[in-house]
Design brief:
The protein is an alpha+beta fold and 120 residues long. It is 48% helix and 15% strand. The protein has 2 helices and 3 strands; from the N terminus they run αβββα.
């Protein structure tokens, strides 16, 4: 037994109001950092292309398409399906890029923790 300990008594480990307050401060700081990261993500844009640049899509951090450019040469009334496929491919790639940016930015805040509800 350690000095000052009695048989049957267990030494208290951590806890208490001070520890809880410290955890709350850490959570509040993380929340502020996450809000700042979300604002940073919302302000970013990425551009993706399909068909060798025939379709170009720009997507912002809010997952909104802010620009769509279609090369005149790929507009063929007899092959609308190809144009649809190119647009979908460019949009999907743009969304994947924004997701990667968001995951990277939020990972800086959370330290790589997988926190449910963040959409990562």
């Amino acid at each position: 037994m350690g000095k000052g300990m009695r048989a049957g008594k267990k030494k208290k480990v951590g806890g208490g109001a001070g520890s809880m307050q410290q955890q709350m401060k850490q959570l509040q700081a993380m929340q502020r950092d996450m809000e700042a990261a979300q604002a940073s993500i919302a302000g970013q844009e990425t551009t993706a292309t399909a068909g060798g640049g025939a379709v170009e899509v720009t997507v912002n951090g809010n997952k909104e398409i802010t620009k769509l450019v279609i090369d005149r040469d790929v507009v063929d009334p007899d092959d609308v399906e190809m144009l649809q496929d190119l647009i979908m491919a460019a949009v999907n790639e743009g969304m994947r890029q924004i997701d990667a940016i968001a995951e990277n930015e939020m990972g800086k805040v959370t330290g790589g923790l997988n926190i449910p509800g963040l959409g990562l």
